[in-house]
Fold this protein.
Amino acid sequence: MADELELLRGANPVPPDGPHFGDGPLDHGAERRLERLLRERPQGRPARRPLPVPGRPRLVWGLAATAVVAALALTLVLSGPNTTPAVAAPRPLVVQTGTTAVPLGRLAARAVQAAADGSPRLRKGTHVRSWSMGVSDREPPVTLPEERIVRWRADGSRTELVVATDPGHPGRPVLSDEQGEPRLVGDAHVISDRTYPPSWSDAPPQSRPPNDPARLRAYLTEAQYTRTALTTPQLLDAVQVLLDHWTLGARETATLARLLAGTEGLRPVGQVTDRLGRRGQAYVCDGPGARRMLIMDPATGAVLGLETTFTTAEPEYGVKKGDVMSYSAWLR
Amino acid sequence: MSNDEIFAAAYREHYWAVSRYVARRLDGRADEVEEVVAEVFTVAWRRRNDLPSSPLPWLYGVARNCLANAVRGHGRRRRLVDRLGNDDTAHGRHITAGPEADTPGAWVHEALARLSAADQEVLRLTVWEGLAVDEVAVALGCGRRAAAMRLHRARRRLRTEIDRVRPVAAADTHRVKGVGHG
C-alpha cells in the first residue's frame, strides 16, 4: 500500500502542472495590482486602514456616495435636526487637563491586586463597539460604526451578531457598507447574525491567552503572524486582535497590564472619558503615520478602548491630520 | 535592491504558487482565488520589511491567515469570510460518498477532511506545497521541532483515517472492476 503522503500527493486538487494557476508570467490583473501596490505611499500607511477595493468602478462608488448625501439631505429636510444621521466622523478623545497621569507600572500593580480573587474570569468571545474609517482614492472618507458580539458555546460553535449602531447617536441612521458600498441604515440594523459550526484551533488568537507577560508577548507575536519582535504599535494592534477574540478575566488583564508596563514607548497622558462614557487612563504611542491611544480602567487595568488617529494628512484620501482612523471600545 | 524591489520580485516569482495554495483551500472557486491572493499580497506589502530571504513559506503563512480570520472587515472581504465560516466546502464536508468516491482522490480527501484543521494544514503544506519541515515551521509560525511533531502526529492520524475509509472504497472498486472484467 502506498505511503499516506504519496496518496495525498496524488489527490492534490491544484497540481503545479495542472490547467490552472501554473507558473508563468503574471496576467494583466496581477500586473495591475502589483503596480497599484508599488504606487502606494512607501511609509506611514497604518496597517489596519481599510484600503480601497481594487477595480471598484468609479461610477458605482460615485453614485453610492451621491445617494448617501441625498438620503442625508432628505432626512434632514423631513425629520429636522433631532434625527440627524450619525454619519459624522467622531472627534478624537481629549485628555482632561489637570488630571493625574497614572504610570503603567502603578496601574499594573492595581490590576494584580484586583485579580487576587480571580474574578471576573476569562471568556472566549467579545463584545466590541467600533468606529472605522473607510477610505477611497476617489471619494471622501466615511466612518462606519458597528457593534459586534461573539459568543462561544461548549461544543465549539459560536454566534456572531453585528449591528450598525453608534452609541453616541442613539436612534439615528448610521452608515454601513454591508453591500460593499456605504449607505444609510437604521440604528441597530443587523448586518449579520450568524452561527458558525464548531471549530478548534491551537494557534493564537484562537488559543487561550497565557497568564505570563513573556508568554503573552510571544502569543501576541504569533497572533500577528510575524517572527520578529513586535514594535509597540504592532503590540497594540495585537492587543486589539486579542480583545476582538477574548473577553479577558482579571488575571489575564493583570498579565496584559504587566506586559504593557514593561513595554517602551507608551506614555501616560492623563484621564479621558471614552465614547461609552467610561473614565479611563490614556497611554499614547506614536508610530509611523498614526498615534495609538490605549484607554485603561484606572482601578482594574482592563483595556477599555484603543483609538488610532492620523498624525499626517493624506490628502489623496481626504484624510486630515488628527482624524480618527479607528476606535474600538470593549465591553464585558 | 530596495525593499520595494525585493517585494516586486517575490510577487512575480511566487504569485502563481500563492494562487495554487489559495485555490487548494477554496476548492477551486477561481473567482474568489484572485480576490484572496490580492489580499495576501496587500498584507505582504504592508509587512514587506519582514519579508525573509526565502519568502514563499512566509507568504503561505500570510495566505493562511487571510483565509482564516484576518480579514474581518468591509464589503466583499466580509462576505468572503462569512462564507469561509459557514460554507461546508471550507470544512471539507462537501465531499460525500457517491459514484466519484471510487476515485482515489475522493477517499483520500475524505480521510483528510476527518482530521483537525491543524492536521490538515501541516499535511497540505508538506505534500501539496512541497515544503520542508523548516519551511512548514515558517508558514505555521512555530518552531521547527513543533512543526516536525505536528507533521508526525498528523501523518499517523491520516494513516488511521485512510485505513478507515479505504477498505470500503477499495472493496467497491474491486467489485466494480470484477464485474467489468468478468
User: Anything to note?
Assistant: Chain B has eight helices and no strands.
